[in-house]
Amino acid sequence: MQESELKIGYIIGENTSGRFQFVISDDSNIKKWEYVYLKIKNEIVIGRIEEIKSKSELMNDGMDYQSIDKYAKTGMNDFVNICISTILGKLKDGYLAQSREIIKPGMPVYPASDEILQKVFSFNTEESLNIGSLPDNNVNVSLNVNGLRRHLAILAQTGAGKSHTASVIMEELLKKGASIIVLDPHADYVFMKKGVDGKFYSEGISVFRTPLSTGRYTNNDVGIINNFTIRFSDLTPDDVKGIMDIKEGYTNLISIVDDIYKKMKGKKDLNDFLETAESLPAEDYKKIKGRLTFLKKIKDIFQDYTTGINDYLGPGKMSVMDLSGMDQFLANYFSYRVLSSIYDVKLSSEFKYPVFVFIEEAHNFVPPRSNSNIAKMIKKIAGEGRKFGIFLVVITQRPGKIDADVLSQCNSQIILRVTNPSDQNAILESSENITGYLMEDLPSLDTGEAIIVGEIVKMPAVVKIRNRETMAGGSDIDVIALLREAREEVRKKNDPSEIRKKTKDLLGEF
Ligand SMILES: Nc1ncnc2c1ncn2[C@@H]1O[C@H](COP(=O)(O)OP(=O)(O)OP(=O)(O)O)[C@@H](O)[C@H]1O
């Protein structure tokens, strides 16, 4: 095909090494977010359309309705359609390298073919995770598993598709034999053992719950579950303080717990702890009584066995820690136990495979300036984890309410719809990958559409995340269907024939 047949426009006006503008014909089908290229000295320089402007000298913004109406009816037009495109780089061996060429007015602009785009959005099979496709064509987009080495953030407002996206990445990582831990405060991932068809999906997935869990699903709903239990005598005094939510500054309560430990003479189990506490001087007992009541309330988590790292960490194994129904500080404590044990085995190289840790609702575990054990552990992993092979996937709907250092340690971002300006600002500040142009698109993304930037992709892209293979938990409630059911219930309650039927059932024929 001749170049002249392919081109869609010509470079015009002022252009820079980062951006160019070109005029397109009136009947062009080109759309925002599509990719174009220029041929400069036998090289292909790729750009992405960020904006399309249309303007007319004739029908300008100083004219009234009647005059425009007249022009419009004549069919006359002098529209100029101008596309603004960012330069993503020049294509080199399937990768993008920086382009420093001068972009001159008059140069033709070509639409990037699916073939070119497919090259840019794929990696070799072993390193690629299939995440979805470009929204307007069939080009598959893959993530580079190596890009996860520098942590990933999945950011979006509620309902935009964070858990869906995270599940797709988990499915892909499982296929690669990854070891995955999921901190799951709302039981969003507890059904992943099942496929969308309801059949069994993967041997490798286990769900861990504490006997305390009063979450949104029962054990029967979830199917096979593993209990996360603790043998009280395995706990250190500091562990017990953590479980009782006794923070660093509570010096009185800290010394009372230490005192109980010094005086314990029996099996060092929960009963021993509680009985020893009762023998404390009345004043001390009074101070700690509320915390002891709490320990009694959660006594079911203390069993004969302490769930340990070998239960939940292994090659090709994904363990979902269902923390639903727990107070935040207990969820923090359990999560801290899990992450610190992973940190230890990775630090000592006892476990050699990479571990991917997904943290849902991460803003609750590591809010700004938090000094809790779990927050310190997450910050440590964000800072140094990648050296030992622990990679974070931080998921949050409140990017403005999570520790900024943790967010900025994430070198890749998958960002779905975000309309709140303070969250948009937090995202913009967290990463140099995100430009103002990309930010402008955030409010208009559809559910399941994401902007992906950073080391996991060769160039920034808006991607339609693929369908899930596994069953979702925590999907949106179908309000319409439930309201329909409620109306039907009320109708039946008031329907005379239903009332007669009920009376007959109760009294028999009369
Ligand atoms: N790529 C997608 N394709 C099809 N459906 C999707 C996609 N992404 C999300 N959805 C659907 O949109 C709804 C919300 O998705 P999801 O639960 O993942 O959002 P969320 O951002 O995690 O919400 P929340 O903050 O409430 O947990 C779900 O019903 C989900 O199935």
UniProtKB/TrEMBL annotation:
Residues 8-92 form the Helicase HerA barrel domain. It comes from Ferroplasma acidarmanus Fer1. It comes from the Archaea. SUPFAM superfamilies: P-loop containing nucleoside triphosphate hydrolases. This is Uncharacterized protein. Residues 130-339 form the Helicase HerA central domain. GO terms for molecular function: 3'-5' DNA helicase activity; 5'-3' DNA helicase activity. Belongs to the HerA family. It catalyses: ATP + H2O = ADP + phosphate + H(+); Couples ATP hydrolysis with the unwinding of duplex DNA by translocating in the 3'-5' direction.
